[in-house]
Specification:
By secondary structure, the protein is mainly beta. The protein has a domain of 136 residues: Nucleic acid-binding proteins (OB fold (Dihydrolipoamide Acetyltransferase, E2P), Beta Barrel), CATH 2.40.50. Helices cover 10% and strands 33% of the residues. The strands form five sheets. A five-stranded antiparallel sheet has the order 12-11-10-13-14. Strands 8-7-9 form a three-stranded antiparallel sheet. Strands 1-2 form a two-stranded antiparallel sheet. The relative contact order is 0.14. The structure holds zinc ion (ZN). Zinc ion (ZN) binds next to loops.
């Protein structure tokens, strides 16, 4: 999938890694790479500048959302729920996972909505795009779907990886349970009746 060439295994081993010690990030390894530059010349061959290729490793902290990304690799879709009895909107379930309730600002609890997603998820709307951002790993055209779940007050953006999107289409999630990457593409969507025998490599119904 995609156009991006990942680093070799040897390069990968030297790449910066992060451990957590006493609740703090401890980076080790190489986080910044410099590559050879190239001259920029005008039509007469006069030097106008140089390119400066730089490669850096970004440390993306998940904080309270870690439980959500960890769940995907285990075939679980974990949402969050406001259980504050004093909240005007108590009982709201949020997917995408929200650490705090936007109405009362109290910390939400984690709820498993995997079965709800498998049995009662539909396409609210969709968007097909040929142009992608940098480092895209999804096959183009990308079929983005806004997935609606029964009893959930928000809508999740995802990618339909098989079939064609349509408003109201029943869909089900598939999860990268083999070699999970702990990113949002560990969950993708297929039409509800799509055969298990035709899923992308490493993905299962959970
Ligand atoms: Zn609340």
């Amino acid at each position: 999938m995609g156009e991006y060439n990942f680093a070799s295994k040897e390069e990968d081993e030297k790449r910066g890694k992060v451990r957590v010690v006493n609740n703090r990030y401890k980076p080790s390894g190489i986080f910044h790479y410099i590559s050879a530059n190239t001259p920029i010349k005008n039509e007469e061959g006069k030097l106008m500048g140089v390119t400066n290729p730089r490669d850096m490793t970004y440390i993306h902290s998940y904080g309270g959302e870690g439980v959500f990304f960890e769940g995907l690799g285990k075939g679980k879709l974990l949402a969050s729920k406001c259980e504050n009895p004093d909240c005007e909107e108590t009982g709201s379930i949020f997917m995408p996972f929200r650490i705090h309730c936007p109405d009362c600002l109290r910390k939400n609890t984690v709820v498993d909505i995997t079965d709800r997603a498998k049995d009662n998820a539909t396409v609210h709307s969709f968007m097909i795009t040929e142009r992608t951002g940098a480092f895209n790993t999804l096959p183009t055209p990308i079929k983005f779907v806004n997935v609606e779940f029964e009893g959930v007050c928000t809508i999740l953006m995802g990618a339909l990886i098989r079939g064609e999107p349509a408003i109201g289409l029943k869909v089900r999630p598939i999860f990268k349970t083999n070699n999970p990457e702990y990113i949002i593409t560990d969950i993708l969507w297929v039409p509800a009746d799509w055969p298990e025998s035709d899923l992308p490599e490493d993905y299962t119904s959970g």
